[in-house]
Design goal:
With 214 residues, the chain is an all-alpha fold. It has helices spanning 3-36, 43-50, 54-61, 64-77, 89-96, 100-128, 133-159, 169-179, 182-191, 196-211.
């Protein structure tokens, strides 16, 4: 094996090892954060759960707050690939759909697929925000990201002339932002026992009834 090939091989092994470590820590973090809470979960506990040292956790993420942020980012899209949510095919398909009713049905299906894994993390972030400035900043950023995303969807509906008379793009944004929230998901699915199919249909019907014209 030439020196150049060996260097590439070694670099590839290091990247693969770093990725495995990151995945192990995030897997441990999801279980520990949800079960114990953010404040009660130490970096040492994260390290033990991942089978690595605390120093490795710090070297990989920098801080416990950064672990939670990374966990949120991965949970939103379902993987650790460097592709932002707006660039994902599922969102592009919703954005490109010419029929507003179909677009909202597709978005309802996406929300029903994502919220079972995402809602517990969002609720965790909000519950921990009062005790940690870094998590408070993360909570504000998450809320703003959601609002921005719903603004884009509402603007699409408005540009298509699909909104009902008297419904502004801002009102549509706020309705979408509220109804797709982790809190509403938690109330209906976890507390009231709705199935994901019922939840998805409710979202689509609610949006159609409140937002779309005849």
């Amino acid at each position: 094996m030439s020196d150049a090939v060996k260097r590439r091989y070694d670099a590839s092994r290091r990247r693969a090892g770093a990725r495995r470590t990151r995945e192990q820590v995030l897997r441990a973090a999801r279980g520990l954060f949800v079960q114990r809470g953010y404040a009660e979960t130490t970096v040492a506990a994260l390290a033990a759960g991942a089978g690595v040292s605390a120093e490795t956790v710090y070297a990989t993420f920098g801080s416990k707050a950064a672990v939670l942020k990374a966990l949120f980012d991965v949970t939103v899209v379902g993987d650790d690939e460097p592709v932002a949510l707006p660039d994902r095919k599922v969102i592009q398909d919703i954005r490109d759909e010419p029929d507003a009713s179909v677009a909202l049905q597709r978005y309802a299906a996406f929300v029903a697929e994502v919220n079972p894994r995402l809602a517990p993390i969002q609720l965790l972030i909000e519950s921990a925000a009062g005790g940690d400035p870094a998590i408070a900043a993360l909570a504000a950023d998450v809320a703003q990201q959601r609002l921005h995303g719903m603004g884009l969807l509402a603007a699409k509906l408005a540009d298509q002339g699909a909104l009902a008379t008297g419904v502004s793009a801002n009102e549509a944004r706020d309705v979408l932002w509220t109804t797709n929230s982790a809190q509403v998901f938690d109330l209906l699915v976890r507390q009231r026992g709705w199935s994901l199919t019922r939840y998805e249909r409710w979202l689509a019907r609610t949006w159609a009834a409140l937002l779309l014209g005849d």
